[in-house]
């Protein structure tokens, strides 16, 4: 075991930022980068959002609907740590993509709009975090507005998360009377000043809760906050780091991202509280992050990030060892060897050639379809990691090409978009059956139709389908499975990795078939590998 690898792993922090749309995720991301010194000018994440729109047509959809379709990765150095921040699409129709991003992180930062409290999309994401025991840090945003009572927000979080919320800071006033936040643990108040360009060095701090200056300057707002803090100290549990790491407690911070307020505390919490990369469970064995040999998993594939080059970038989360530019890597699924030279990292948002990467880092490997979602890369060992989920679609549409001469382009486009996870593509075995698209959210169909047109020059016709659910099927032995497939051919389709699925038009139909064939297992989720 190399001590260099161990010390590089120890200083990694990899987290996802999650929220309901409009809670302030983009703003906070930008401010985290600003405070870490990764960008000089506030506004560049927004600018990046804008330039992405400009450079890639399909992102128009994102702009039009004000939602974030694609997730992205940013790396920054802060104090002695390398922080990898993975953005997630907030819109529920893209939750599958988000779930997969959550498999690649060690912690999550949840942003809550203090006026709206815990919103539906946040709840779904939290369920995924909870299922994986991902530690969560909570940031309650927009205290510069008239918002909900902080005590109410805390109980809402506790109710939805099913975990204890432990405030690290507490707001003094809100909206017009917002005076700042009191740092409960350091026993000092950070006074609020509006402004976007301010950094931490010009902070106005007042030491001590009993300091008469606070009461003098903030009167009633402070008296109220003081009572609330006393209440919390008496009633709320002590912060317990082990309970946080186990996903049983969340530290809570208050602030206003747009005013750069409360951001420093969150950044420090990421370094001080969030865990470094831990071991990862593979089918074969437990993989330690500081093992000398490299391994990593493709958790996301994005096509055509750069429209000038029709490339696809596979996002790989490093699980162990050291990645070096030019090294040979084996794809476990196919046994093929690749030797990528133009692997990129995402330091301060620029795509930069990566020289080295360690567990927790995300590297981007441009390729032309060699790498699929869920693929494992190693230095030769055959490894499969579990847990990258595909969910059985709940909506189906049949797809045909308007111009039959472009059938090939349609297939290419759908294969690529399917491999990227933008949509699930099923090929029914029934002769003459049009390809079927399966989605978790309606918006996915629109994005796919738009991308087929702009990226592949295909006008696709989407038609309603008689199917309303799919189940992947397996059996104890291949013969039993094949027999089932043969006798139900009209309802069988294969997905992009040739996994067979049974398609039904109703729950009732599915139940009948399940009773008829007790030897067949019907799965609502397919784990890659
Ligand atoms: P996202 O959809 O979660 O990425 O949210 P954005 O970061 O795009 O923010 C949504 C809106 O809230 C934008 O208009 C922001 O300017 C605004 N916003 C973000 N943070 C704050 C804040 O602290 N106070 C106020 N008043 N508005 C904010």
Give a written overview of the molecule:
By secondary structure, the protein is of the alpha+beta class. The chain folds into 3 domains: 16-70 and 90-273, P-loop containing nucleotide triphosphate hydrolases (Rossmann fold); 280-378, Rossmann fold, CATH 3.40.50.300; 389-527, Peptide chain release factor 3, domain III (Alpha-Beta Plaits, 2-Layer Sandwich). It contains 14 helices and 33 strands. The strands form 8 sheets. The protein has an 8-stranded antiparallel beta sheet with strand order 28-25-27-26-30-31-29-32. Strands 2-3-1-4-5-11-6 form a 7-stranded mixed beta sheet, with helices on both faces. A 6-stranded antiparallel beta sheet has the order 18-17-23-14-15-22. Helix 3 crosses helix 4 (59-65). The two termini are 28 Å apart. The model is unreliable at 40-44, 47-59 and 61-71 (pLDDT under 50). It binds guanosine-5'-diphosphate.
Strand and helix map with partners:
Blueprint: H1 3-10, E1 12-19, H2 25-35, H3 44-55, H4 59-65, E2 73-78, E3 81-87, H5 95-102, E4 107-113, H6 120-131, E5 136-141, H7 150-161, E6 164-167, E7 169-172, E8 180-183, E9 188-191, E10 205-207, H8 212-235, H9 241-245, E11 249-254, H10 263-272, E12 280-281, E13 286-287, E14 295-303, E15 312-320, E16 322-324, E17 329-331, E18 337-338, E19 344-345, E20 352-353, E21 356-358, E22 362-367, E23 376-378, E24 389-391, E25 395-401, H11 407-420, E26 424-428, E27 435-439, H12 443-456, E28 460-464, E29 469-475, H13 478-487, E30 492-494, E31 500-504, H14 507-516, E32 520-523, E33 525-527
Helix pairs in contact: 2-10, 3-4, 5-6, 11-12
The protein binds guanosine-5'-diphosphate.
